[in-house]
Amino acid sequence: MKKQISFGQALATVIGSVIGAGVFFKIGTITSQVGSPSATILVWIIAGIISICSGLTISELSSSLTVNGAIEYLDYSYGHIWGFLFGWAQMIVYFPAQIAALTSIFGQQFIALFNLEGVASKTIAILLVFFLMGINLLGTKVAAQMQTVITVLKLIPLALIVGAVFFTKHDPVPLWPITVKATNPVTGMSQGLLSALFAFEGWITVTNLAKEMKNPTRDLTRAIILGLSLVTAVYVLVNYAFMAVLPFKSIMGNANAAYYASMGIFGKLGGKLVTAGILISVYGAANGFMLTGIRTPYILAQDNRLPFSDKLGKTSIRTGVPVFAAFLVNAVAIVMILLGNFTVLTDMLVFVMWTFTTLLAIAVIVLRKREPELSRPFKVPLYPMIPLIAILGGAFVVVMTFFIQFNLSVIGLGITLLGLPIYYWKKMR
């Protein structure tokens, strides 16, 4: 694969993959869980701190290990079976489900914006999958450049909303003292934090581009840390803006809070602004997941760990894109769109993805003890405090998800373990 991805494009992939539809829809859920403006902002800040600590921790791996992404970080730290299971879960469910979910949201919002009655949202979603796949098949550089442009565009509506609130007169949002007005404050804050952490999902996928970055040792670390910091700032400012415009009680549990807030700021134009913002945002997130997701089967096939590895491990001579891997991931995504069960599938893999993310954070401590002489161009600051925050945050998500969504977590774990027969079959051969 050619080294053609710059720092800016990697940064755009982090921001673009994380900021999807959640920035517009999560506020209704979180406000109903914690019950106050101050606690709402607090859970976003805590979620951001945990995510940044996780990014700082895993950045030590990305600078130390000259391998291709999180799959091979797990290979190196724990053995090949762990990397395979992570990649298997991503390839079979995680990436296709994310692409299916985002393109389906795009289809629904596209119909709403242009008032296309009688047009099936699934049709638009599938057309978008084909379009994005076509862009990605043109080459990594083309897809990465598009990701940069879309990320800039998706930040414009958010910047307009925040700017309009901060530069016009609105009632200040009470941020102190911090109060939690849930029936059970501990449960309310826990659920709110869990919801906020889910909105940071997806940043680790940028590690799949490590072998295609011009200077991965330096730029991958910077992209992860700066990207997560900017995402945290966006989430905090946008949520503050929504609460400054609307009465807090009208936001609680309201899935359309962003729409009404923008209407309050910009009038009739506001509704179209939010819808356009959602379109651009989910489009960029879908492209980010496709850009990184089609490389998962390729990475596994490079070590002959999948059936048809000879096909899945090949890249186009002209563009350097893993063509057969792209067809596989997007074919599964289209099936999910047609079946309409992508949301459940996405939820099933939350437990699995965070389990592996937590294992990656633990790997930093493991390698510090096992290989103290390993070259570390970037060392996580304030060691071991920051890795411990990342580990505790990840463990919190894993445990909470397991108890709140027990059945889905068990099914997700079962799907992941279905990869074991393939792993041992290929190993025996």
UniProtKB/TrEMBL annotation:
Assigned GO CC terms: membrane
Record keywords, A-Z: Membrane, Transmembrane, Transmembrane helix
Topology with respect to the bilayer: Multi-pass membrane protein
Transmembrane segments: 7-29, 41-61, 82-107, 119-138, 150-168, 188-210, 222-242, 273-300, 321-342, 348-368, 380-400, 406-425
InterPro entries: AA/rel_permease1 (IPR002293), AminoAcid_Transporter (IPR050598)
Any Pfam family the entry gives: AA_permease_2
Location in or out of the cell: Membrane
Claim: Transmembrane helix is one of the keywords in the record: yes
One function term, GO molecular function aspect: L-amino acid transmembrane transporter activity
Record protein name field: Amino acid permease
